[in-house]
Design brief:
alpha/beta, 10-stranded mixed β-sheet, about 25% helix, 3-stranded antiparallel β-sheet, globular, 10 helices, TIM Barrel
Length: about 325
């Protein structure tokens, strides 16, 4: 597998370092950096349609449907492999439980696409950990459970680049701020559930804060951070004293930039919504949409169709780009 993957056209060039995940995008031939790519460089693919956990805050909701088939996954990769640098495997449930998990990762690598995925760590097997070495990185969602921290420790021990996904909500605000102040909330502490976390934060690749989305099962739950909480978080995230790297999803970036003035370097390090511009989501039943939080009813079906054509002309994508071109730093979805 090549170390570098390069795509260029008359207007821009993308250089992707496949081992580190570093991506450099720049305009060429006198053109500015592009607002939108020919096809996404990051594709979120929901290979899982079924989850039995029924988490109260799940933005995907509790609807169960069949998992994506291996053949359908291959058809997607075949169409986008020259443009897409990374895929984020997700959907409802843990991607490592997909019956063709290993074949999915292998097909990505065969086509010079780096696979990544997020898991709860529930019932994680040694075989799944070994297979996960094919990934660029693995993220474990912090569910404050024994299996969460056990999975993190085991991924790190296996030499896999490991992130923690930490939900930023009204209820997790205090813990998130502690992390930014340099405190390790997972260092041999006994939580309310009697859990000994014991995670060496210095061995993590990063902690990524994800803004709570009142979508799906969480649409009737009052967990959105208050303006004060977002403001305080914003003042700290760009001056983080955390013991490892920290990051945010673009949904949270949209909020933080309202409260701080970014330095030139910081402006290069964070980005606002990339939906329909540089990223997109495909559901387990092959519906294509700008992001996984968008209204599934507005998605376009890709079965028997050209993904490039839908990316260029599909209504949800054109609408997203219209909103973001006029008001960058906002969310085209009204929660």
């Amino acid at each position: 597998m090549p170390r570098l993957k390069v795509f260029s056209n008359k207007k821009y060039r993308i250089i992707f370092e496949m081992e580190t995940g570093t991506e450099i995008l720049s305009g060429i031939n006198g053109n500015p950096d592009p607002f939108c790519l020919e096809l996404p460089s990051l594709l979120d693919i929901g290979i899982m349609g079924t989850c039995g956990r029924k988490c109260a805050f799940c933005y995907q909701g509790h609807i169960n449907e069949p998992n994506m088939t291996l053949s359908d996954f291959k058809l997607i990769i075949d169409q986008v492999k020259y443009h897409v640098n990374q895929v984020a495997l997700g959907g409802r449930g843990d991607p490592n439980k997909h019956r063709d998990f290993k074949k999915i990762l292998e097909y990505c690598r065969k086509n010079n696409v780096v696979p990544n995925y997020t898991t709860s760590g529930f019932n994680l097997t040694d075989k799944e950990i070994e297979i996960s070495k094919l990934c660029g990185a693995v993220a474990v969602s912090d569910y404050d459970e024994d299996y969460t921290y056990d999975a993190i420790r085991r991924f790190i021990k296996a030499g896999i680049k490991t992130n923690i996904h930490k939900l930023f909500s009204k209820n997790t605000y205090d813990d998130c701020l502690k992390i930014l102040h340099g405190y390790n909330p997972w260092k041999i502490i006994i939580g309310q559930k009697g859990i000994s976390s014991n995670v060496n934060i210095k061995k993590l690749n990063a902690i990524v804060f994800l803004l709570f989305k009142p979508q799906g099962a969480g649409k009737n739950i009052d967990l959105m951070p208050t303006p004060f909480q977002i403001k305080r978080f914003s003042e700290l995230i760009y001056k983080s004293k955390a013991k490892c790297k920290v990051g945010m999803d673009s949904c949270l970036v949209n909020h933080t930039i309202k409260y701080v003035k970014l330095t030139p370097i910081q402006k290069m390090s964070v980005d606002t919504c990339e939906g329909a511009r540089m990223s997109a989501y495909i559901t387990p039943d092959l519906r294509f949409m700008p992001c996984s939080f968008a209204n599934h009813n507005t998605a376009v079906q890709i079965t028997g169709k050209n993904i490039k054509e839908l990316w260029d002309n599909g209504h949800p994508f054109k609408n997203f780009r219209k909103v973001l071109s006029k008001t960058p730093g906002t969310c085209p979805i009204e929660f």
